[in-house]
Amino acid sequence: MSGFLPSDWLDELRARVSIEDVVGESVQLRRKGRYLWACCPFHNEKTPSFKVDTDSQMFYCFGCHKGGNVITFVMENDRMEFMEAVEALAERVHLKIPEKTESTATDDYNRQIREKIYEANLHAAHFYHKMLWQPEGAQALKYLYSRGLNDSDIRRFGLGAAPNSRDALFQSLLDAGFSEEVIVSSWLGGVKDGRKYDMFRDRAIFPILNPQGRVLGFGGRVMGDGNPKYLNTSDTPVFNKRNGLYALNFAKREHGLKRLVLVEGYMDTVALLKHGIPGAVATLGTALTEEQARLMKRYAPEVWISYDGDSAGQKAALRALDILENQSIPARVIAYPEKQDPDEFLKARGVQAWNDLRKLSPVEYRLLRAKDGLDISVQEDRTQYTLRACEILKGVKTPVEMENHLRRLTQETGYSREVLIRQIGSAEKVKDENEPKRPRNVIQETKRSEIQLAQMQLIALLDRDKIPKGMIEAEDFDSTLYRDMFRYLSEGVKPRDFISDLPEEQLREALEALNFEPLPDEREKAMDLAEELLHRIRQIRINQKITILTARAKNAPDSERKELNQQIQALLMKLD
Asked: What is the full DSSP assignment across 21-77?
């Protein structure tokens, strides 16, 4: 994860940054005992279960089980990649990031160009917004008003107008000191046959910001009948349509966001956010991509697809469902009536009606779309629909959900339940409990075995310096995870410095161990507990060996059974 960054430099960064200060900017921390507590910023709760340990410089939530060091917190809270979080924290404490050993003059030049493009985009955003209030922006302003926006909405979203001029922005950028190279590289302007021109002309402008608030590019809606109707910034060194989403900067501010609402365009996004519906985002002139799906996964545990109700929107929703499921993201689809889009529906019916709209599961929506183009009152079409529906139902994994769909399909088509099951495949396949489950939008508690719990407590006692390091050994732990943690702690490595290097699938268990509660405060009681835990682990291991030997003895020949029974007897003598 840390790439080219030296481990000692990362240790210094984590030591310099106060996790209390960083977390305290997002939640209100209150001290209780040796820890600071708050309501978790990552899930909704009324009773504080989010703990910050200023000694270890770690955080942990007993509710959603998220935890880690200050870098982890910034990644989760600000939805940043590792290097983005490191850069933000390094800038905070004025710590210079080591240069890559392979860094070249070309790398330095590219970094400079990227920064200049960001600056040019910011200049352009101010230019477009200022232009909206000038005579040159009158048509765009009239259009925005006609879509139900007021001046406050326009300022909130930084909307603007590109004048119907060949090179007004280009000249403004040149006057501000930007080079032609930067203007062309940022896709704000171009040069053809020696003549300069603006990329966006006679359009209402929607700035596209990254989650940290930097302007990446723009979307422009043409005024009048020109083509294309919507024009987006092409790929630049700071912007790629496949990798971003409109309005992520607003979603970033929503802590504990339950879902993202994915719409098709800028105005639909603005409409949902204007009406107080959080988490609205839009793709940037492309169909949903795998990259965008992975990005959404960092912001919310579920996605509601809120595409237009026309035929194109319905087909796009089906494609989006496939992409989201490939990324294991739970999704639902909002089916708008009468081919309306989200903006039209909200204007006509209001927020309460939008909240009351059914949010269809993927199977429900696919079954709904399976009827498209068919008249199921006609036998031939009804048969075609049944075949389509049975193909869709092959993906249903739970018997209860399958039963609900079968009842409805039986009523719709007239086919018997048995015929439908045969068409789907087989009842046994439907009820196969070994099929991988799709992720649920709930926190699933993991049941730990008795020996796991004992070993987790030993790790916690060792981490909190409640027992001497020589009291336990690597052999007292069964899993590679616990043995690795034991080795780190025994060598004096702090959890904040090794937790980020653990594989993702082990991270939750490691955090649970480090934050095991309750444990005794007094060292003498802690040592008594450690002895009791070690004894319990050894007793459990003896019982496990007895179980294995007993099973072997049942089918062993007489000569071998006698030896096995002797081993069992010897083990029984060791039990208390």
From this structure: HHHHTTS--EEETTEEEE--SSS--SS--EEEETTTTEEEETTT--EE-HHHHHHHH
Q: Give the DSSP letter of residue 216.
A: E
Closest CA to 234 of 143, 117, 144, 111: 117
Q: Does 239 reside within a domain?
A: yes
pLDDT value, residue 63: 87
Q: How many CB atoms lie within 10 A of CB 382?
A: 17
353-407 residue pLDDT tens: 999 999 999 999 999 999 999 998 888 888 999 999 999 998 888 888 899 999 9
Q: Name the one residue in this structure whose structure tokens are 């096995």.
A: 564
pTM of the model: 0.66
Radius of gyration of the chain (CA): 30
Q: Is residue 100 part of a domain?
A: no
336 touches 345 (CB < 8 A): yes
Q: Phi first, then psi: give them for residue 434, nearest 5 degrees.
A: -85, -5
CATH number at 82 reads: 3.90.580.10
* Domain housing 29: 7-92
Residues 162 and 295 in one domain: yes
Strand order across the 58-61 sheet: 30-32, 35-38, 50-53, 58-61, 67-68
